[in-house]
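I am going through a labmate's work and have reached the protein record below. What it holds is a sequence and that sequence's fold in token form. Please read both lines and tell me whether the tokens look consistent with the sequence. Do not assume that whoever made the record got everything right. Thanks in advance; the entry in question is below.
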Amino acid sequence: MRYLVTLKVTAQPDGPPPADLMDAIMKLGQEATESGSLLDTGGLAPSSEGARVEVSGGRLIVSDGPFAEAKEMISYALYEVRSKEEAVEWASRFVRLHRDLWPGWEGEADVLRLFGPADFAPPA
């Protein structure tokens, strides 16, 4: 099953992430890739560089960012795993690295969301 994990933050400590954190993230990513679980990762641009495409009243509406969301989505990871629990474990390990290796990260309103497979059958 594939799971998309997204990371949103409301705030993070000032300054760049510590080198130890970046090294640990690289090692975790390598481990996940070698296990066959991690398919793709990437950082995401701020909403000021994005667009929203929606349908309202039967009309297609395209709006350029920035958007008023209090949280910015900053990265994603795509996993191929056997269960939701396995996806949660990889995501938890990633967040723990931030908490443990970046002073000031704990206590922030950081959100990791997992989007899993859906039972979807296209209309006949």
User: Anything to note?
Assistant: Residues 84-101 form the longest helix (18 residues).
